[in-house]
Amino acid sequence: MNESSSLNDSKDSEKSLCELASHEFATIKETITFVDKTLFIKCLLSDTSEIVLLTAPRAFGKTTLMDMLKQFLLGQKSLFENLKICTEETQFFSKHCKLHPVIHIDLGSVRGSSFAEKYYIHIMRKMFSYSSMSTMLLR
Asked: pLDDT tens digit string along 8-33?
């Protein structure tokens, strides 16, 4: 291995590590470490449970899975062209892609001691965006 190829390998792995820090499905899909989990969409949308709870330790991809689902439901078809949900489940893909409405609430940056508290802070920030600089909402 020559020096320039090891530098390129180093840069590629560095780039991959940076991209792994992203939660965006579109970004992660382009990395060399991407694993196609798009069939999760069918599993989730076919579930008849009233509530579905996704639990896993931090950094196990929960946010990325939700972003993938959001992109699917918003109809970002080009993101899924060569992935399992499109190639193996064509009928499901055609039926569900861009069919369901999406409400996305990200409470990741909201501080609060409970879900309800975080949700109310989030709503207040949206309703009164002019107050986003208030230190009261940052506690």
From this structure: 555 555 555 555 578 899 999 998 88
Q: What CA–CA distances, in Å, run from 118 to 53, 68, 76, 110, 114?
A: 18, 23, 29, 6, 6
> How many domains does the chain fold into?
2
pTM for the complete prediction? Answer: 0.68
Is 10 found in the same domain as 32?
Answer: yes
**Same domain for 72 and 28:** yes
- Specify whether 93 is located in the same domain as 111: no
Which region holds residue 79: left if phi is over 0, alpha if psi is between -120 and 50, else beta?
Answer: alpha
